Amino acid sequence: MSPTTIGVIGCGYWGPNLLRNFSENEEARLRWMCDVDAKRLVSLGRRYPSAQTTLDYRQLLADPQLEAVVIATPVSTHFGFAREALESGKHVLIEKPFTASVAEAEQLIELAERNRLTLMVDHTFIYTGAVRKIKEIVQSGELGDLLYFDSVRINLGLFQRDINVVWDLAPHDLAIMDFVIDRQPLSVTATGSCHVERGIENIAYVMLRFPDEFIAHFHFNWLSPVKIRRTLIAGSRRMIVYDDIEPTEKIRIYDKGVMVTRSEDAADKEAAYQTLVSYRTGDVWVPKLDSTEALHYVCGEFLSAIREKRSPLTDGHSGLRVVRILEAAQQSISQGGRPVELSGNERY
């Protein structure tokens, strides 16, 4: 089978990483590079001389030999580019966040399914060795009953002018949570503040409630003096600390927990039960992780899904679930932290 021809729209911040990975994949052939910066295209053209360059994405979409389009542009442009690409019969890989609204996400999913085309969202962290290992551990039942998911993603800058800190940083952690815990929240509560530019929150706290006692909390911040990328996933038997900044030991599994026993107190008629709490402390171990670049697997999954005519791991529905939470979080922030119920959160 001949390699899938690829065109990339948006060659700025993230685009070069996608260009490199597709050019290195034997199942792909880089055919087009599109950007609004002519100088950037000249530079990339020297690096990838076999690919054509254009300032006009319509030229790329009009090419009958182009099979798939990768969109690495600002989120406000995702829907328009993806819709035209799907209408042109191209498979689409799109950067996070998937779209700027739930309505846009649903339209793209319907269009892709109607035209029998692959639609995939680049939730890069899902393809890291660390997150795949966490998923494996959770699925095995090793942690016991899941209790909570707590995540901190903070740093100083990079300030965005078109989206706030939630839309910028939250897609990573929401996608990780969606992939790992395999359950959907009932409501979202969020609060945030705008310290630099009016109307664009640079710090936010988001909390998700679920049908059971499981709870998830997220802290996002562009105004932190330190960079932290840390997630805690607690179970009744064991707990995981995932530190993405840690160079070698990104995951630590703690054999720690709380044991609660209740026994009827026959001597005390007024106290029906006595609750005894004890703490268990065991070993800490660090699993070995696959260190392959996540984007290598992202590109490979996109190409395989096209070739095998199947849904990719992070398909449009995966992107929709994240966007639904983002939209609800924004609504909650706008309403002073009022809880917002989530509807239509079926698992696909």
Q: Spans with pLDDT under 50 lasting ≥5 residues?
A: none
The CATH homologous superfamily of the largest domain = Dihydrodipicolinate Reductase, domain 2
**Biggest beta sheet attributes:** 9 strands, mixed
CATH class membership of the largest domain: Alpha Beta
Number of helices: 9
Average pLDDT value?
Answer: 93
Order of helices and strands: EHEHEHEHEHEHEHEEEEEEEHHE
**What is the first-to-last residue Cα distance?**
30 Å
What's the number of structural domains? 2
Quickly give the structural class. Answer: alpha/beta
Oligomer: single chain
Helix content: 25-40%
Shape: globular
Query: How many beta strands in the DSSP annotation?
Result: 15
Strand order of the largest sheet: 14-13-12-11-7-10-9-8-15
CATH architecture verdict of the largest domain: 2-Layer Sandwich
CATH topology of the largest domain: Dihydrodipicolinate Reductase, domain 2
Strand content: 25-35%
Radius of gyration: 23 Å
